[in-house]
Amino acid sequence: MGSALPIGDPAPADGALPDDLRIDAATDFGVYLHVPFCRVRCGYCDFNTYTSDELRGARQDQYADTLLGEVALARGVLTDAGPLRPASTVFFGGGTPTLLPPGDLARMLAGVRDTFGLTEGAEVTVEANPDTVTDAVARELAAAGVTRLSVGMQSAVPDVLAALDRTHDPANVRTAVAAARGAGLQVSVDLIYGTPGESLDDWRTSLETAIALESDHVSAYALIIEDGTKLARQIRRGEVAAPDDDLQADMYELADELLEGAGFDWYEVSNWARTVDTRSRHNLAYWRGTDWWGFGPGAHSHVAGLRWWNVKHPAAYAQRLAAGESPAAGRERPDEAARRLESVLLRSRISDGLPVAEVQGEGRKAVASLIADGLIDGGAAVRGTIVLTLRGRLLADAVVRALTA
């Protein structure tokens, strides 16, 4: 059911923002809508999700109306702090958003549109389990204003899916992609590599299968073992082997090679797109540090340097809103040094790069050695931007440590 919430300051019951907070009307505004429901809990998952027997007082069929209560609250909070901005991106994540009827997702999106407005050409993404996407579902989502479907493929190899506790039929990935394409939606597929027992050949099979789908975008994430998950317990008991760092590095290099050969360009360490227009604009907003409101239990928000997070359980979330209170559990306002550190951490991960001018002190002195070590692109650095090389992407954490020393 997700990791523990951060420790911060208490959030006011009405959700009001600090009196001295100033919203920049020119800063993009995004909306994240968390749908915390899953049919089963995957062994590796640390997200704030719940199966039907874990809901304890929350009802899935009432969720859309509950979340729209937070949307209404947000309008008042943001109106008091400055001009309302239309959303340039909307992202339904989870969990499995497509466990809800398409009509519920459509009502949630309509609530966002009616409350904030959407910019012209706004990107609206829905994450989907392949087993839940039919032609009818895809058409209904497209009619509601969804522009992009992110399909949780994870692997094309049944044994690997079983090790992850993924229950979808691999054949349904192609069906889901075809349905999305038929409805005029952009398509992304999500992959995970480094699963215990997965070989380099298994990973090649998954990559080649994903490429054959002719999607617009591919995300490929290294498996991370999170404390408290089933997979972490299995590794601790010696039932399965921990992911091998060297093998994961080989898998990343293979992904970059095959995806680049198929016409994809990397734009973030774990993400490749066919064109600039098919990059995930919503996720880029996170990496660039713009503003967003996260709706739903456990969702996090960021507006004008203030961060807050909601209570985790759907029942507690619903109870707060039913009482006319904000669901925010806590908040923080990082100081300038913390914001600068976060900017280096996030912006160094994207191909647009991090301005050298934003690196200070010993970090600025480290740039030359990072170029010499083949971790950042020398030509880009001379032009004023830090851009990771392929080797630098593999060692991104080490680069960040050097830049923030």
Question: What features would you describe in this structure?
Answer:
This protein has 405 residues and is an alpha/beta fold. It has 2 domains: 29-288, TIM Barrel (Alpha-Beta Barrel), CATH 3.20.20; 335-405, Arc Repressor Mutant, subunit A (Orthogonal Bundle). Helices cover 39% and strands 19% of the residues. It is built from 15 helices and 14 strands. It has helices at 63-81, 102-116, 135-144, 158-163, 171-182, 200-212, 230-236, 245-261, 281-288, 314-322, 336-347, 361-372, 378-382, 390-394, 396-403; strands at residues 29-35, 87-94, 118-128, 148-154, 186-193, 217-222, 265-268, 271-273, 291-295, 300-303, 306-310, 328-332, 354-355, 385-386. The strands form 3 sheets. The chain has a 9-stranded mixed beta sheet with strand order 7-8-6-5-4-3-2-1-9, with helices on both faces. A 3-stranded antiparallel beta sheet has the order 10-11-12, with no helix packed on it. The protein has a two-stranded antiparallel sheet with strand order 13-14. α6 links the parallel β5 and β6. The longest helix has 19 residues, at 63-81. 41% of the residues are buried. Residues 23-265 form the Radical SAM core domain.
